[in-house]
């Protein structure tokens, strides 16, 4: 469906820039939706790829990536989160390092907090500031945290990959594999009581499951002996606010597990 839709629009000789932008935006939304549902691969018509390659839109193309790809497993055993952050800031294990302004190791309460939220990877705002979830999705995540009766500083927030993927694409499996040891060691040091996995990438990274979040959300999972609640990613909620109800149900389960009640609504 994507192919027919996209190719017919791309064929016009002189494509208006705005049309192209809105097409790309719609296509992005569709692909993000599929990703949130756990879809890992899509067949794309060669003709569509060729049409995209011809369009002179430099900012829409991924930056050329030199083959920076670690071939040896990470051997470091970090003793502190600061050590991890320092290592991450100089990391060149995968090509994502080439596009980063700042790495985004994560932030928050690292002293066995009730909650650790794990997302996919930094976007443009996070890359600019070196802090996780500070853009629109981050503002929504902060609201979710506050609705649960916590402050942002009470919880730890991190991502599966620590550098921004080009054009906010989903991290590749190789990039996730190379970056995940950082997150695993962070979790080992932070020792959260409960992890909330935000979206398909977090679930895939932590559990290795490619089951869609729609099916897994609201069901308790376990990561290295820590309770893990999968739920929708805040970016998905921005695209489909009707899903907020489900996320709130998931967060109520988390509060119950922690022996807490949500504060009265303001
Ligand atoms: N989306 C994520 O998954 N992580 C961020 O830090 C920001 C947006």
Structure description:
- The chain has helices at 2-10, 17-36, 46-54, 81-89, 124-129, 136-147, 173-190, 199-207, 213-216, 234-239, 244-257; strands at 107-108, 115-119, 156-159, 194-198, 221-223, 226-231.
- With 266 residues, it is an alpha/beta fold.
- The protein has two domains: 2-60, no CATH class; 81-257, 3-Layer(aba) Sandwich (Uracil-DNA Glycosylase, subunit E).
- The N and C termini lie far apart (45 Å).
- The site of uracil has 13 residues, from helix 6.
Entry summary:
This protein has 266 residues and is α/β, with parallel strands linked by helices.
Percent strand? 5-15%
CATH architecture of the largest domain: 3-Layer(aba) Sandwich
Total count of strands: 6
- Helicity range of the residues? 40-55%
